[in-house]
Amino acid sequence: MVEVSEWTGRALYQGQVAMARLPRQPHSSEACQQDMLGPLPTADRLRVRHDMSNGPAEPAATHVDDAKVDVRQLARRVEEASLNAWPALQQLLIDGWLLRFAAGFTKRANSVVTLPGLHVTAPDVLLRRVVNCEQRYRYQGLKPVFRLTDIDAPEALDDLLARRGYQIVEPTDVLTLPLRAQAAQTAEAASLAPGAFKLLDRDAWVNLYATLADMPPASRPLHLALLKQILLPCDFYAWMDQDQPLACLLTVREQPLVGLFDLVTHPDWRRQGLARALLNRALRHAVTQGAELAWLQVVSDNQPAQALYQGLGFEPLYRYWYRVPA
After folding, report:
1. Please, what sign has the CA dihedral across residues 129, 299, 102, 33?
2. Taking the CA atoms of the chain, what radius of gyration do you get in angstroms?
3. Cα separation of 193 and 224, whole Å?
4. pTM above the 0.90 mark?
5. Hey, which bits of the chain come out as E strands?
């Protein structure tokens, strides 16, 4: 079997979510995309809290100025954006389950995703679907991996997988940050770091990332192939000291959202504010491109990243986890 590798550069903050409704401001060629999404509930007027330490928690609806805002709707939008931003090389859609394949490169691109709102609970139907998925992944030489979220609380599927010997690995929080509150502090934070902020082309950036992340040579072509599959606007950032790369970051925009990926800092330059500076500059640039809400996926036990993202104001929206064979 091919093991699923995790060269994705993730991080995590565990805490509480704050979101608010932002005014809709279409931007040039991407205005129609934002209109399709509609207004986002984000962070100044709505506050929703749930304890991430107690495992999966169902996102709840709340109220903003006596108007009901469905937090689950925002979570579903971000979940869709995450699938678009990190595509598989191949995929199958079977009865509302998305089977993603990328030759074992990252679990996100090599797992079964149950699309929000399409969960089934009938035991016989669930069992047939799980067995079908297992067969299809093993046919590709991959271990079957299931990715579940707490957006729609799929307890029946989670329980079935547990009974079949699947274990939970890598609980991950999806965090969001309203960008208008962020814009005022970016210039000062970025000015404190040594080096220079640069935008690179994809091919230059992927080589730089592979070096900083110490990616195995066999994984590098798969990483590039996956990046080529992204059909949304991407920005490839680096923080450089002359010709020396110090940190890098990828963002993917699906207006009015922007997703953050592959943040890596050179080992000799960690804990010196470079990651924060790079994030701030990238978020400020994303705002100029029309982004209003940033999101990222971060593994729950990454303590250094918890502090980083908490300091920037990111807060959790929903959680996902993987079920893998024991």
Report:
1. positive
2. 19
3. 29
4. no
5. 17-21, 41-48, 62-64, 67-69, 90-94, 97-101, 112-114, 146-149, 166-178, 196-200, 234-241, 244-254, 257-265, 293-299, 315-325
Q: Which of 326, 324, 13, 325 is nearest to 147 (CA)?
A: 324
Contacts of 324 (CB under 8 A, 6+ apart): 143, 144, 145, 146, 166, 167, 169
Compute the distance between CA of residue 224 and CA of residue 222 in angstroms, rounded to an integer. 5
Contacts of residue 67, defined as CB under 8 A and 6 or more positions apart, other chains included, come to: none
Tell me how far apart the alpha carbons of residues 308 and 272 are, in angstroms, rounded to a whole number. 11
Nearest Cα to 309, choosing from 15, 6, 9?
15
CA distance 297 to 258: 12
User: Could you list the pLDDT tens digit for every one of the 326 residues in the chain?
Assistant: 433 333 333 332 222 233 332 233 333 333 333 333 344 443 333 333 333 333 444 343 333 333 334 888 999 999 999 999 999 999 999 888 999 999 999 999 999 998 866 667 788 889 999 999 999 999 999 999 999 999 876 789 999 999 999 999 999 999 999 997 555 454 444 444 556 889 999 999 999 999 999 999 999 999 999 999 999 999 999 999 888 899 999 999 999 999 999 999 999 888 888 899 999 999 999 999 999 999 999 999 998 897 899 899 999 999 999 999 99
Q: What is the C-alpha separation between 197 and 100, in angstroms, rounded?
A: 34
CB-count burial class (<10 Å; 0-12, 13-18, 19+) for 26: middle
Burial of 252 (0-12, 13-18, 19+ CB in 10 A): buried
Compute the residue count for the chain.
Answer: 326
Nearest to 50 by CA among 174, 167, 147: 174
